[in-house]
Amino acid sequence: MTIIKDAPTELFPDPLPLIGKGRPRSVNGGLHQHIYPATGRPTIEVPLAGPDDVDHAVATARSAAREWRDTPPNVRRRLLWQLAKLVEANIEELTAIQVAENGTPIVSAGRYASSVVDVLEYYSGWPDKLVGQVHPVWPVAAFDYSVREPHGVVAIIIPWNSPLFSVGTVVGPALAAGNTVIVKPPELTPFTSLRFAELALQAGIPAGVVNVVPGGAAVGAALVSHAGIDMIHFTGSGRTATRILQSAAENLTPVGLELGGKSPNLIFADADLESAAAAAVRYSFQNAGQGCVNGTRLLVEDAVFDDVVSLVKERSEDTYRVGDPVSPETTLGPVINQAAVDRILGMIDRAKTSSGGRVISGGARYGGEFADGYFLQPTVIADVDPRAEIAQDEVFGPVLSVVRFSDEEQAVAIANDTKFGLASYIQTSDITRAHRLANELDTGMVWINGAGGLPPSIPFGGGKDSGVGRIGGLEGLQLFSRTKNVWIAL
Ligand code: NAD
């Protein structure tokens, strides 16, 4: 029998906001009781930043902005590299903090932490390579060039599902482009962001360049509506993005958005069915289904539908091992809280009762030693109506919907019939079909016959209700900088 141990909270950093070098004690946003999702038990109380803390953080980030923008690129390169090395040196600690803050299994949390090292190393190489352009002009003789400049102070709002990865992948390009940042992690998971900011200071990045104000919707709203914010980058749900855009409209603040997804995974009869089924299970249940790019809509060609469904059922029952998140054997952890359990089980129930879906695997909460935590079984629902709620809305839990299609045209129509446009996956041995579909699918990213990681060199993001702009690669730097054009009459 697995004994779920209490959260390993001894590594939690001071939960107070980090503004400049200081940890202001007079926070006025109230308190949040942190709950460890694997046990459902309370750990520590998190003091939440309030409007005064936001004012203080914005003033601090503004006063550091000029110094950071004017820091020579080779020095910014060294400082970002140094931060990468400190994250690497503290990888076990950061991993343990993430396990304790949201119940991510230690093996997955370790992978997220390594990805952050990779992102920081990658972006440390960019500050000295951000170049402008020279433009031909007329009708009079002139020399005209453009340069990239930082926006200034960037408000960065992140969600709770992979908080270290979220903070690293956005702060990396924002700092490389010369911005100062104010990170607002959710009240549920403030700890990795705070530790990350402590390491930034330790790396020698000037005080005020990276600030953290933990809190919920109230502090987020105060931050994004602040007149001292020059750009907003938001990762989270479409519902919140709408509110942020409404508020940003008041100050005409530019916004980058990384939102949700309902990514289709298309399996054609000519695919290697064994590996396609294994991939389908991996893509949908990783991080207990709490991931924006998870392939949660499986579209299977008629001719192989029954074979694929039985392979997926088998794999979904033996691929993921539920257990204590601190154990290296565990690959399936809890979802974030009781509200998520209720929402996910409600959606499964409606898929059965009102949409005729067939639950062929899972469908319930784990009992016994897991009953106090928020553990849900990997769930596969077959014969789902592609317009049903379960196939259209983000579940953000370990649920895979399987839909049938008869030919390529219908597959594309079903795949694109969603408000989301983040990622898509294609399994086929026909290379021409693969390229044809990559052209047809309305998503920001397409993975063909396998998805092996997310290196920081690739543009990451989606369209439609999945977002605006790309983090990753050169596009990440372009998002966090703007063009200035200079004309010199000759
Ligand atoms: P959420 O929108 O509820 O919250 C996200 C963040 O916004 C939190 O920090 C929250 O406190 C803050 N917030 C809430 N109301 C606000 C307001 N009015 N003003 C400013 N900030 C506010 O999302 P969530 O439930 O925490 O996260 C899950 C969502 O995030 C899913 O939709 C998921 O797909 C998405 N996500 C996207 C990516 C990506 O890269 N595309 C990555 C991870 C998660």
UniProtKB/TrEMBL annotation:
Keywords: Oxidoreductase. Transmembrane segments: none annotated. PROSITE patterns: ALDEHYDE_DEHYDR_GLU. InterPro entries: Ald_DH_CS_GLU, Aldehyde_DH_dom. It comes from the Bacteria. The active site is at E258. Residues 33-486 form the Aldehyde dehydrogenase domain. Belongs to the aldehyde dehydrogenase family. This is Aldehyde dehydrogenase family protein.
